[in-house]
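Renewal narrative, Specific Aim 1. Our central claim is that a sequence can be written position by position from structural information alone. The example that follows is taken directly from our test logs and has not been curated for this report. It begins with the structure tokens describing the chain, in the order in which they were read.
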């Protein structure tokens, strides 16, 4: 198991602002599959263009709704992982802390993290596909997808699909958090999907120390000053415990 270097603890203690970006790897230990891992990833079994694009929803809304309903079920049965818990504790020990997640599962919030920047939305919320506003899901009825109570348009999950823009507020706050931080941690993401993957580039350009936690190599590994090879669940609890120890 990767040991947390003492210099990293020192760097975190001295930092004024830390920004974390998480990806599906941190939820893998909650039993939610990642996207691109070769055998187990969601995109090994399903084609994103059939399920996660506006075109897929336009051509077969029921199939898209049912697939998200299946994923929502999986998320509601999952529990936050040790990595989610450790990040919630770390936030309380550091002076400035921003948490950006690409995950749509809400597990950071359930572990106690506050003010999470949801870059790709949240699978537990629905929005009206016509008005683009969040809508309370009506009681299950015959129609799939259910209809917007206000305008009758089809409801869809409040997540970002391929080809869609990141919600403006999340885009802006994530950009600022990447610019301002002196340490940027990339955790459990393949760093292949933009614009999220561009956040570490922004942090690096602004002089931040880049840290990666991932059992596999990614495009970020060689850029990181600290590349910790291991799982979020093994490394983050060590990191949060070390930050709590007296200096
Ligand atoms: P990926 O599936 O692309 O990458 C998951 C990463 O997690 C890989 O680099 C794994 O090595 C790593 N990993 C696996 N288990 C881990 C563990 N226990 N601890 C730490 N890391 C682990 O998933 P994302 O990078 O999250 O977008 O994918 C980014 C976006 O692509 C998603 O938000 C989603 C997807 O298509 C949309 O749906 C818009």
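The sequence written for that structure reads:
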């Amino acid at each position: 198991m990767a040991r947390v270097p003492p210099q990293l603890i020192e760097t975190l203690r001295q930092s004024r602002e830390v920004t974390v970006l998480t990806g599906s790897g941190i939820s893998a230990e909650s039993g939610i599959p990642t996207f691109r891992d070769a055998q187990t990833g969601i995109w090994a079994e399903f084609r994103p263009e059939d399920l996660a694009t506006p075109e897929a929803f336009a051509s077969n809304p029921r199939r898209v709704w049912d697939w998200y309903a299946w994923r929502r079920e999986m998320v509601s049965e999952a529990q936050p992982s040790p990595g989610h818990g450790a990040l919630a504790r770390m936030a309380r020990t550091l002076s400035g802390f921003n948490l950006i997640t690409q995950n749509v599962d809400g597990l950071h919030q359930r572990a106690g993290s506050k003010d999470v920047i949801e870059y790709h939305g949240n699978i537990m919320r629905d929005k009206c596909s016509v008005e683009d506003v969040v809508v309370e899901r009506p009681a299950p009825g015959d129609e799939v997808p259910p209809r917007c109570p206000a305008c009758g348009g089809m409801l869809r999950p409040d997540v970002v699909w391929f080809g869609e823009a990141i919600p403006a507020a999340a885009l802006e706050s994530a950009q600022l958090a990447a610019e301002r931080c002196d340490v940027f941690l990339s955790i459990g993401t393949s760093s292949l999907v933009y614009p999220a993957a561009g956040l570490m580039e922004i942090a690096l350009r602004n002089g931040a120390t880049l840290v990666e936690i991932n059992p596999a190599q990614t495009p970020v590994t060689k850029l990181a000053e600290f590349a910790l090879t291991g799982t979020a669940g093994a490394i983050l609890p060590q990191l949060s415990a070390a930050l709590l120890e007296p200096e």
